[in-house]
């Protein structure tokens, strides 16, 4: 992965973060309590999408993405650039809060297609693989976050006599059930593997500089498990989704961002790329959970 790709990823994320905060400044200042964090859900998604986009245009990213596409897909060279442009378009919409209903619906559809075409077949080929299930549920949670935003905006823009309220209800219900499953599954994984870096448990070992690494794994597992169960039972669902989002936000700031900074100080280009991806991944998971909380 060229160093320039890492630079563009970091720069894109920072630009969209600053732009989104400027757009949301009134909403942030007028919110109270947890709502100050919830209002940032869409922006967190936008920042992550913007950070991922440059990987689709340069370096080894396009070849890697081509290799993930199903063998029957035509024009394999076309899809990395198309997905990169789609990520930037969705990020721009979410950061600037324009065309939100359309962009979030299409973004959720894109992640849903990733699940159906790439990750679900991988799970079916390797049904006992924990990483395969983890990655599939991760992208399904991204889909759920996007469709939670879509459901919220379908509800707000519904006209008398239209089917928008019913469509909105089903989108939000889908999002809540998905996060219930994800929270319970990830919570169990954290209890089985407490030394994994928490959040989306992809198998990264907890850094040696973190004190009591297993304790943090169990704490994160408990929050995810309880939050998932509350969402499944529809008990204090908004608080449950907010708790999952707050956990992922804290992990982004106090675990994955320091990992990235340490990689920048002395690591290789590949280590920096891994650090950026973990920051963006966890922030996107946080934004998706907070988007669900907003819709609930």
In terms of per-residue confidence, which ranges show pLDDT below 50 for 5 or more consecutive residues?
none
Oligomeric assembly: single chain
| Total DSSP helices | 11
Largest beta-sheet characterization: none
Query: Helix amount, in percent?
Result: over 70%
- The structural class is mainly alpha
Radius of gyration: 18 Å
Question: What pattern of helices and strands is seen along the backbone?
Answer: HHHHHHHHHHH
- Counting DSSP E segments of at least 2 residues, the number of strands comes to 0
Tell the overall outline: globular
Please give the alpha-carbon distance between the first and last residues.
40 Å
Taken as a percent bin, the fraction of beta residues is under 5%
Q: What is the domain total for the residues? A: 1
Q: Would you tell me the overall average pLDDT?
A: 91
């Amino acid at each position: 992965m060229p160093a320039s790709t890492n630079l563009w990823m970091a720069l894109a994320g920072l630009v969209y973060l600053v732009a989104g905060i400027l757009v949301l400044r009134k909403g942030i200042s007028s919110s109270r309590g947890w709502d100050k964090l919830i209002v940032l859900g869409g922006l967190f998604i936008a920042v992550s999408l913007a950070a991922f986009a440059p990987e689709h245009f340069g370096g080894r990213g396009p070849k890697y993405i081509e290799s993930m596409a199903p063998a029957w897909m035509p024009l394999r060279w076309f899809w990395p650039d198309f997905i990169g442009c789609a990520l930037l378009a969705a990020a721009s919409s979410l950061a600037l809060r324009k065309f939100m209903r359309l962009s979030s619906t299409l973004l959720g559809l894109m992640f849903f297609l990733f699940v159906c075409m790439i990750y679900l077949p991988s799970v079916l080929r390797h049904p006992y693989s924990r990483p395969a299930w983890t990655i599939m549920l991760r992208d399904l949670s991204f889909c759920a976050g996007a469709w939670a935003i879509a459901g919220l905006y379908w509800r707000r823009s519904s006209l008398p006599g239209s089917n928008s309220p019913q469509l909105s209800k089903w989108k939000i219900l889908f999002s809540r059930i998905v996060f219930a499953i994800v929270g319970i599954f990830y919570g169990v994984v954290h209890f089985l593997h407490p030394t994994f870096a928490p959040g989306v448990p992809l198998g990264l070992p907890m850094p040696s500089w973190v004190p009591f690494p297993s304790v943090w794994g169990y704490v994160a597992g408990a929050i995810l498990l309880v939050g998932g169960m509350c969402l499944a039972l529809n008990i204090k669902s908004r608080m449950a989704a907010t708790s999952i989002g707050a956990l992922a936000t804290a992990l982004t700031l106090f675990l994955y961002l320091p990992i990235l900074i340490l990689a920048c100080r002395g690591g290789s280009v590949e280590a920096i790329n891994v650090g950026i991806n973990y920051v963006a991944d966890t922030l996107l998971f946080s934004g998706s959970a907070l988007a669900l909380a907003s819709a609930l």
